[in-house]
Fold this sequence. Notes:
By secondary structure, this protein is α/β, with parallel strands linked by helices. It is about 45% helix and about 15% strand. It has 19 helices and 16 strands. The longest helix has 29 residues, at about 105-135.
Amino acid sequence: MYTILIVDDEPNYLIVLQDLLEDEGFEVFTANNGQEALHICRDTDLDLVLTDMQMPGMGGMELLTKIKEETPQLPVIMMTAFGEVDKAVAAMQAGSFNFLSKPFKNDELLANINKAIEHHSLLRENIRLRNEAKQRCDFAGMVGKNRIMQDIYSLIEKVAPTSTSILITGESGTGKELIAKAIHSNSKRENGPFISVNCAALPDSLLESELFGHEKGAFTGAISMRKGRFERADHGTLFLDEIGEIPLSLQAKLLRIIQEKTFERVGGSSEINVDVRIITATNKELKEEVDLGNFREDLYYRINVLNIHVPPLRERMDDIPLLARHFVGKFAHQLSKPDLTISEESIAFLSSLPWEGNIRELENTLERASILCNNNKIEPEDVQPDIISSNQPELDAYFNIDEIFRPDIRLPDILNALEKKMIVRAMEQSDYVQTKAAQSLGITKSLLQYKMKKFGIKKKAPVH
């Protein structure tokens, strides 16, 4: 039900219009002056205001102006005396949706009201969609609508323009470097370089040279001067991933450059000044490393002015459908497979897995599935995770394949036959309880349901 406010100082006019509009199914409020109308506008969720132009005290034009100041999207239709064309034009210029000259026909009034309300409904829908859009599903290359991710997006927007040192924590594969890049791209340094270095990927003997550079002849093999990552990141951002792996011998030098913005190349004596924002990341509990004596406490507090913790994928499972479709779209482009899709069954199956490798594991799984799937459609059988266990016995030690299968039988036929028989056996032994059957087979319930559908296996044994 739409709500309309009628404003007119003539009581009879109010009664006639109220009866007419209520008969048409509208909820109607009335006011006999502009001040009373303004109070109703502030206290009521209205869809339209229908007001007379000439009223004592606050007139229609003043009321229109105040309404547009407070709720600019609320449509106002002005009612004017016959011949007041100049006032009607002024009302339209001030934001009136339309004007009607008294006396007017009921059909004319209703047509204008319906048109104004339809316009208002579209405006409100656009506002709603914009508000929903604020709950972003993607931000600077990151994908996720989970509440935790929304909080991270907001935090990035707040801290990016500052020069604050940021420590990003989280398990491997959660996207810590993406967050560092998002901070850089939303900062005043966005046009400067973003340099990344994985401190765990380099041996201690090379890490110092990689970070700070070296002079010619500084060590065997240093045949020329080489700038380090700090110099290359000047006026930009340096991202130190796995900061917890930096040896104590380098931590003092790193602390100095953070505090004083100066350093010396390996084998050099000249001080070099740089303007670099440092963002660090780790999958370790650095405070524990401090307590164990593996990480300098003063450095820890220098890099951990603000902490952004990235949740593991298992804590944001509601994002898996978004992430899956995002990666499938990415690989569809990379592999020149414009028709590549993923089934809902596959997404449901992906949503049931633990993803110990987090987003990186999910991305790798979908990349492999995008390459190997049939008919450009990813099905649950295409997204099986890599399960390797050294504790499981090698089945081929128990049988001779030549004694069991004829050489002319194709591998897909063998696999399908084995799968079907094992599923039927598991269902029978579990009294057709799918959860138990899936557990005994070592697969998820969603994958079991997919395979039962594939092989035409009924959910319950028929009763004879």
